[in-house]
Design goal:
The protein is an alpha/beta fold and 281 residues long. The chain is built from 10 helices and 9 strands. Helices cover 40% and strands 14% of the residues.
Length: 281
């Protein structure tokens, strides 16, 4: 694929056009996703579309579109980064995001204890944004529960979460149900386990059997399983081509609880160790 900016923008817009035509109205980006915010914002402005947009702060992309770079992004959850990236997001999107999340918050970064960051996020919440966090790693549930208990002047500034949940990694499920019950928006990411639950992965026999029964691809079944969770408001596709998107969209037609796939769940530590070993793309 041609990696010039114009070519990548055109490719992204083609996928976005297909998503819009299919009825999708939630779009996700982040400061560290290369030029994702710029491409998305330009597309929305050019097409005149009104959509729900989520974005994230806390990582700075430094790889210059090189998959072989030694370092792809730098994580920093401090006030300086927030104050720098918020106006960058506004400029790139040409609008405010509807959801604005701490990117991959963990207990180890201390961001949920940083009173200056929390106070600034409370200001954004007061502006009408849904402010929250995305989670990552084996401690997702603990991080989310800590976020549910945060207060600034007696009020929790958070009301949204984006978390990894898929047939392989289900450890955050109960905490996500708690967030949903508290009125938070719940967005599921990595529902196809970064490609492990697609035709590119090594498909377990139980998943292969369900795919045969439903005449559906593994990615569609994996996404349908996430959509079946009663606490899931949005499930992200992650498709990078129109063909992948079309395959993903089949999930909307699949209605089942998928009990036969319960055996696919791994221990969080095992799942995240395998994920860390995946190649950057």
């Amino acid at each position: 694929m041609d990696k010039t900016v114009d070519s990548m923008r055109g490719h992204a817009w083609n996928v976005l056009d297909a998503a819009w035509a299919a009825g999708l109205r939630y779009f996700d980006a982040a400061r560290s996703y290369g030029r994702a915010e710029e491409f998305l914002g330009g597309w929305l402005a050019e097409r005149g579309h009104t959509a729900t947009v989520g974005s994230k702060w806390g990582y700075t992309y430094v790889a210059n579109w090189r998959t072989d770079a030694d370092t792809h992004e730098v994580k920093s959850h401090d006030l300086k980064t927030l104050e720098r990236q918020w106006p960058e997001t506004l400029e790139a999107l040409v609008r405010k995001p509807d959801l604005y999340l701490i990117h991959s918050a963990t207990l180890e970064t201390g961001v949920l204890e940083d009173v200056r960051v929390l106070a600034r996020l409370a200001e954004l919440t007061a502006m009408g944004l849904r402010v929250g966090l995305s989670t990552s790693g084996p401690g997702q549930a603990d991080t989310l529960r800590r976020a549910l208990a945060v207060t600034v002047d007696g009020v929790n500034p958070f009301n949204a979460v984006q978390a990894t949940w898929n047939l392989r990694e289900q450890s955050a499920g109960k905490a996500l149900a708690e967030a949903h019950a508290a009125g938070w928006a719940v967005v599921v990411k990595e529902a196809v386990a970064n490609g492990r639950l697609t035709g590119r992965g090594q498909i377990p026999s139980s998943l292969a059997e369900v795919c045969r029964e439903l005449n559906a691809s593994p990615d569609a079944v994996a996404l349908a399983a996430a959509l079946a969770q009663p606490w899931a408001d949005v499930v992200l596709s992650g498709a990078t081509t129109v063909e992948q998107l079309e395959s993903n969209l089949r999930a909307l037609e699949l209605k089942a609880d998928f009990p036969a796939l319960a055996d696919l769940a791994e221990l969080p530590e095992v799942y995240w160790r395998a994920r860390a070993g995946l190649a950057w793309n």
